Amino acid sequence: MTILTEQHAKKLLQKVLSFSKADECECNLDGQVGGNIRTARNTVSTAGEQSDLTLAVQSTFGKKTGVATINEFDDASLMKVVKRSEELAKLAPENPENMPAFGKQKYLASKTAFDSTSSVTPDDRAQAAEDSIKPSKANKLVSSGFLQDATTFVAIMNNKGLFAYNKATNVDFTVTIRTEDGKGSGWVSRDYSDVKHLNTKKASQVAIEKSLGSVDAKEMEPGKYTVILEPAASVQLLSNMFGSMNQRSADEGRSFLSKKPEEGKEGGPTNKLGEKMFDERVHIYSDPMNSEAPTAPFAGDGHRVGKTDWIKDGKIANMPNSPFWANKTGVEYRPTAYAGSGLFGGPSQIIMAGGNDSLEDMIKDTRRGILVTRLWYIRPLDPQSLLYTGLTRDGTFYIENGKIKYPIKNFRFNESPIVMLNNIEALGKPERINGSMIPPMKIRDFTFSSLSDAV
User: How many other β-carbons are positioned within 10 Å of the β-carbon of residue 112?
Assistant: First the structure.
């Protein structure tokens, strides 16, 4: 029963609404089923499967709202969860920012679910793990990885005529492969909606080559360098930036998009909407219809979403907001797509347009620079400038005269994605990473502040 069809979900939610006495009632039904396999030291360490189905009922009387959840679906339980949400609503204080529920919506037909992924078996996971471990053993390396596949669905219905349904599939694979003495380390990550695109043997070969190539890393002085960032090295910085683009935070003076009124003048814009802040090649958007990284065609509140430009030609084109803040400021509501909840919830999808250069082309065109496989342990330093710190990891290499010269020790960096996106030298073809599409990029004057002994 965990993954319900659209018809089954609709029938169940209609029954739930029939028990409601509230002014407004919204029901959210989330289901998920999937499996995983974990490897360590070239052998399988754990494997499992999980499934869940949860109903959340939100009841509103005037501006007072209550929410109750349940995972039992007989009639008595459904009546109980509706009654409980109504009791909580009557006890709750009024919410001055409460907004009316949305009515019926018209949605795009996004292709987010693939039978191939829903049909993955324990044997399939075991084979995928073996395909990763075998070449690691053959090279006398030590492999540790994790593979997880999931089929999820969400259904949203309210008593104002809205009904939204989406089924999605996803498979994630990561592996770290190290030399036996721990002096060399390589890493790779792959995620897809359709498991047919996943080749753990081919992916693991990338980590193997980086592991063997990163042995006996040399020290380099910290400073500003030209860097080539693989998608895994920039995706978190870009996601963090996008998460800081909320209109309300900007209007209230709490983000990098806040704009101080001119001295002696009242009113005027309080955010940087429409201002150029990045290299004109920067185009960041979201699109539920993207064939490689599709999403649900609606937001968590059921409102439809379509392709939305957030940054275009280096300018701030739109800013995510809430229905209340959009109404208060007289602008259009700009939601982001539903990204899942619970165990399989993820970050908002972002797509960054790229260019035609390959990673190899970028290396060939670099006189002196550093290739970064990924960044990790990223932490904020200053929300106004979006300054972050973190470390390189699992394969950092010095480039000289168009060739990878030798591996180097990892760095701590202090950098802002705002500065980074103003120092672009080249962009490659976007690749899927963490549910987003991010290009490899060549950046000048990237700031490394100190060395790290970590591999």
Answer: 20
**Dihedral (Cα; 11, 16, 22, 28), 10-degree rounding:** -80
| Cβ atoms 267, 333 nearer than 8 A | no
CA distances from 400 to 337, 363, 407 (A): 43, 9, 12
Please write the tens of the pLDDT for every residue from 75-86.
Answer: 999 999 999 999
Q: How confident is the model at residue 268 (pLDDT cuts 50, 70, 90)?
A: low
Q: CA 386, 389, 395, 398 torsion: positive or negative?
A: positive
Helices 6-18 and 75-91: crossing angle in degrees, nearest 10, is 60
Q: What is the pLDDT of residues 360-397, one digit of tens each?
A: 999 999 999 999 999 999 999 998 899 999 999 999 99
Q: What percent of the chain has pLDDT over 70?
A: 97
pTM of the model: 0.95
* CA gap 339, 148 in Å, rounded: 17
> Residue 346: what pLDDT?
73
Distances (CA, A) of 80 to 28, 53, 90, 155: 16, 17, 16, 20
**Tokens representing 440?**
């490899």
Q: Which are the contacts of 25, defined by CB distance < 8 A and separation ≥ 6?
A: 16, 17, 57, 58, 59, 60, 82, 85, 158, 159
Nearest to 92 by CA among 65, 59, 124: 65
Neighbours of 279 (CB within 10 A): 15
CA 30 – CA 73 distance, rounded (Å): 13
Q: pLDDT of 46-67, one tens digit each?
A: 999 999 999 999 999 999 999 9
